[in-house]
Amino acid sequence: MTDGRERAAWRRAPGLGVAALALAASAAGLANGFAYDDLPVIVQNPRLHDLHRIGRVAIESYWPPQFGGTLYRPLTSTLFALEWAVGRGSALPFHVMSVALYVAAALAVYALASRILPRGAAWLAAAVFAVHPVHVEAVANVVGQSELIVTLAVVGAVAIYIARRAADPARPVSRRDSALLAALYAVACLAKEHGIVLPALLLAAEGTVLRTGTTWRARTRLLWPLALSLGGVGIAYLALRGAILHGVVGEAPTIAFRQAGWGTRWWTMLGVVPEWVRLLVWPAHLAAVYSPPATPVRDAADPAALLGLLLLIAVGALAILMRRRSPVLTFGIAWAAVALLPVSNLIVRSGVLLAERTLFLPSVGAVIAFGAAAAVVRERLRAAGPRPLRMAEAGVGILLLAGVGRSAGRQGVWRDDPTLFVQSVVDEPFSYAAHFAYADWSFMTGHWETGEREGRFALRLYDGDPRLVNRMGTQYFAAGRCDIAVPLLRRALVLVPSFPDARVDLATCLERAGDWAALRPVAADGLARGANVSYYRSLLAQTDSADGASAAPGARSGRRGGA
Known about the structure:
- By secondary structure, the chain is mostly helical.
- It has 23 helices and no strands.
- It has helices at about 1-25, 40-45, 75-85, 90-115, 120-130, 135-140, 145-165, 175-190, 200-205, 215-245, 260-280, 305-320, 325-340, 360-385, 385-410, 415-425, 430-445, 450-460, 465-480, 480-495, 500-515, 515-530, 535-545.
């Protein structure tokens, strides 16, 4: 009996090691508060603060209406509501859940890798996943729980599928297993839209690691009940999402791509490919915000885009060439490619050019491919003698410790907004969005000089974001600097003609300057748009007077009042 317990403990040891590494890499995040998107999505979202209305989450957008009302993640929103109730607004329960989900995700990766790799290589793949620094954003920032849930559900589903299919390739997937996989698919989709890729990942497994010896026609006959189940879930999810968001995509595209054609998106994202590879393979440099000009928008080929194209060709060729010799390597590459498609901006325009949190699910494929390569290297080193193998194992140990240190140290960057925004401009000094975020926070907290400095620098880096231009224009107006505000407000209205505050502030500046010729079209357009009607009528009345002497007294008091 003692021997049996020892053997059971020995079998559990690798999993405990993976869990310990994931905990060591993420536990520092328990000291964090709320930061960045946590505030609008959770703290400033009263819909999540009352459990009596939790049932309405299924028919509401993820983002509150005042912040755009986009995306549909009801499962994640429900979890946030429960965590808020448990902690009564404290951030601690949220971070405890994030760390727990991260440990569970690392164990799920180990379970998946164990089904397709030798034991040692499977453990190494999961260990690298557990300490990978690119995961910090998804764990340290509360809203990253959507990434954690979708990855846990998708990895669990693929692991179950491979186990069932490998056990008896000649049998169809049972109704019970189909129901389980469909439920996990629903969980993934309702946590985050990236979960929609699960069927493609199962297909990738079927074409690589599942060597059943049967034809694709035979496989189709065996798998059609599962395909119907997953298809039904996918269609129902898209229909529900479309009804709630009034469109299937339901996400505002990144500013850089709002007016961009397919060619611009293609060349820009090819230039991002080397960054994807760098972050997945050697994430020494990390940043919370990636944006132009540090992450350039490209209208044509340049060296970075050509490098990205060459990397895609090389990795794709490797996957094809190694499909028979190393199907696990091909599977890992296919996984990463499929998981990157939703954020590639090629199928649909996403809300980001590049974000570390979006690499959480793709990194599963990267570590599986790494494990496959490590298994081959280990066998060759073992044949070369014990010394090279021991040196390689020591190197792996150093790599894992470095990953723990980098990840644990990075967790604190997401402690709160001041910490995050200050560090963001250090990490990416030429990211306009990093400086804009710092400026916006500075204005809101009364640090006007810092806000002006950061905002002006952000404008020098990139003046194509209407939110930035509008924010700076309205801030200068509030400070009584119409000379600087007017050109900014004009540009904001060129970029987005519906900005109500920009139009009112511009009209007020022109009224103060007595520029009646410039004021008339601004006021007429504002009146036509139906907001602040009484104010614009009073302005038009003033412009009707030849010299403005008959301006209605108290007109300014009508600002922003509406009618």
